[in-house]
Amino acid sequence: xxxxxxxxxxxxxxxxxxxxxxxxxxxxxxxxxxxxxxxxxxxxxxxxxxxxxxxxxxxxxxxxxxxxxxxxxxxxxxxxxxxxxxxxxxxxxxxxxxxxxxxxxxxxxxxxxxxxxxxxxxxxxxxxxxxxxxxxxxxxxxxxxxxxxxxxxxxxxxxxxxxxxxxxxxxxxxxxxxxxxxxxxxxxxxxxxxxxxxxxxxxxxxxxxxxxxxxxxxxxxxxxxxxxxxxxxxxxxxxxxxxxxxxxxxxxxxxxxxxxxxxxxxxxxxxxxxxxxxxxxxxxxxxxxxxxxxxxxxxxxxxxxxxxxxxxxxxxxxxxxxxxxxxxxxxxxxxxxxxxxxxxxxxxxxxxxxxxxxxxxxxxxxxxxxxxxxxxxxxxxxxxxxxxxxxxxxxxxxxxx
Length: 401
Known about the structure:
mainly alpha; 0% strand
């Protein structure tokens, strides 16, 4: 079982590294460096305006740390065929799950260290925490995440429904109370409480797994959903075959099709627009990135950081729409259209220009609503026009070539 998990883990890591190389390309890394630098500068300037009297920030940080416990789940790497081929060795699966827990534990605890590290400056200013108190808070967070991962392994088995209903809510409630004690009373008491919860959770797991069987179908479904979430993240930056979209009728968008020319020269334009409106893969991607970008623009305030965010999200949306150009290459009827490839490219450029222009307009409105000066709104408008022009006329041809 140890060898089986190692084989699957190596295959999983190779797949993740392949997509990470596509996500963190040269353009995105440069944009990310500017984004992180600007965000760090804004965070540093905001810290200078805070003082010990703003105690509401402690409550917000507690909620953020509590919500941060939900990040990272148990990675079992189970596959649908396991219900048949591994069922005879069900009792040996405990060693497999131990390996999965250890791998997930290190990744999850690294995320929790980052969460606590980001809150350290705020806690030192607002809550007047010292170095030892911060260490106790870190121990609390790590122990609470340990308990949650152990509970996730426990749920891999067929737990009684009555027990399953109260185990997870009780765990979350205990984590909330523990963090509240750490931030409002003393971190060392919360660390002792968290360690006690983690030890108790491990003891309960030892009592359960040895007396029950594995919930194969639920575990495989949970792992498939976990991987789908990862692939959807990668799909924001590159084309992922594992994420397949569906088609919806969407009658309420038919009025947009009436604005399209119906002549022969715009046949591909009509096809691309209809596919964009009724498909869920690319339209959902555009909507998600547009909403996220608009929210970040509104709350990041005016200035160069907001402008960099605007340029970054327009680039991401334009970059992700490029594979849509070859969406219908596998349909034989599109190859017998009496239209030149040059005309098809022009139709796609028009669609891309319209989508990016609408996105840019939404970003401008969000930027203006953040009380940005009209001069900066005008600068952002010029940036959007230049970027959209370069993406549509130059970058699109470069990528397709």
